[in-house]
Amino acid sequence: MTLFRRVAIVAGTAGLLAALASTLKAQTVQGPHELASAGGPVALRMMPRGTVLQAADVGGDAASVLGFETQRVISAGETLRAPAIAPAAIVRTGDAITVRVEMDGITVTRAGIALGTARIGAPVRVRLGQHSLSGTAVAPGVVRLP
User: Fold this and answer.
1) d(C-alpha 83, C-alpha 71), whole Å
2) Is this structure's pTM higher than 0.70?
3) Band of the pLDDT at 12, cuts 50, 70, 90?
4) What contacts 24+ positions apart, CB below 8 Å, involve 132-136?
């Protein structure tokens, strides 16, 4: 190969590399904070399954998902939406809970143990002494019996 041809190839390669470098500089890489400013709620960090979302975990429209729980591993920069997140459970298996029964304007409460995990409005079994009954989770640590 002649010297002239080698110089032409090297010059061409250098020109190609320079063009590629300027193209890459023109492109901006967005991190989670920049993505969050674009709109919906975005994870600001990697979160394992079962993480209850706090303000420090979410960018963008954080208010709409605060208190929700991750249903799987969430990556930093990922948009937070169902089914990856869901409302957090308010009653968990083994929790000491208050069981409430309301009839004809009278409310009776008693301590019990949750036999399952439930979100608000979901059915859950509870233990009262030697008996187990089905109720509905109505508030954190409170189950209403029918």
Assistant:
1) 7
2) no
3) low
4) 133/99, 135/99
pLDDT digits (tens, 9 = 90+) for 40-93: 899 999 999 999 999 999 998 888 899 999 999 999 999 999 999 999 999 999
Distances (CA, A) of 10 to 1, 5, 19: 13, 9, 14
d(CA 80, CA 32): 12
Burial category of 128 from C-beta neighbours within 10 Å (exposed 0-12, middle 13-18, buried 19 and up) = middle
Distances (CA, A) of 15 to 7, 12, 93: 12, 5, 65
| C-alpha distances in Å from residue 120, one per residue of 25, 86, 141 | 49, 11, 10
Q: What tokens were used for 43?
A: 């994870």
How far, in Å, are 10, 14, 74, 100, 106 from residue 103 at the CA level? 89, 84, 44, 10, 5
The answer to whether the CB of 40 falls within 8 A of the CB of 79 is yes
Do residues 99 and 135 make contact, with C-beta atoms less than 8 angstroms apart?
yes
Q: Which two tokens stand for residue 55?
A: 């303000």
Task: Return all residues near 124 (Cβ < 8 A) that are at least 6 apart.
Answer: 91, 114, 115, 116, 117, 118, 134, 135, 136, 137, 143
